[in-house]
Amino acid sequence: MARFIHFSDIYLDKYDNERFANYITTLLAKIEDVGAKELGVEAYFEEFSTLVNLYMDLFVVPKRFLQTPELKKIEAERTLCMQHIYNVIEIEAKNSFTDHQEAAKVLLIVAKNLRQDSRIRNRMRKTSLIDAYLFDFEKPENAQLLALLDLTKAVEELKKMNLRYRELHEERSQARVQLYKQPKVHDVRMQITSLFTDITDTIFGTYVIHQSEPCRTFIEYTNARTKEFNTSFKQSRSQKRRWKKEKEADNSIPQKK
User: Fold this and answer.
1) Which helix or strand (DSSP H or E) is residue 246 part of?
2) Is-above-0.70 flag for pTM?
3) Residue 199 falls within a domain, yes or no?
4) pLDDT tens digit string along 9-44?
5) Residues with Cβ < 8 Å from 13, sequence gap 6 or more?
6) Using an 8 Å Cβ cutoff, are 142 and 110 in contact?
7) Which of 49, 58, 45, 50 is nearest to 17 (CA)?
8) Residues 162, 165, 171, 175: is their CA dihedral positive or negative?
């Protein structure tokens, strides 16, 4: 009587998300190639395929939101713009050799805390404060004084930047809400792992009961892939341990003074 081959053990629970994704998509592709019906797993295939595709969609979701880099850029630029406006006003208010000193002194009262507020860490509070400054700057009597100091363009740029910052912040907030509504990668992964066990058990059962050649071929193929993945996984872990030991050894060497 011929010996039955079994599915090899796989370290699915220990794989990182990328390795897990590569292995599970390889398995799905092979099931599609051989045929779910021939393997006796038609009852599981649709759900398994849906979960794997969902996992891949979730897995490739960027960790950073698309709006974040531009938000950081605008934040840096509007900070410089606020400081520039304040510095010009402050310098002109101290300068008695021009006709703009009185205008600058009036504006210095309006922009009293502008430089200080440019350093606020709470960026949405900062956005609201900028709106308040802009409201005062755009009053006719202050707009004329700003024009005398050649600051009209700087104020307009600050307004554009602040408006864009608010728009991007809202976009990112909405994107974050949508992301939180999605299933968690860990939860989907656990479902796939459970279904993977059901599928391999069913294929093995079909192979034993019906002496199915497609099932035998599938098991042999899967075992070959499993061996490759397990070997790669062990080598990766071994390499990380070596790097860790080397780093610890380097840190233990006394530094020359």
Assistant:
1) helix 213-252
2) no
3) yes
4) 888 888 888 899 999 999 999 999 999 999 999 999
5) 193
6) yes
7) 58
8) negative
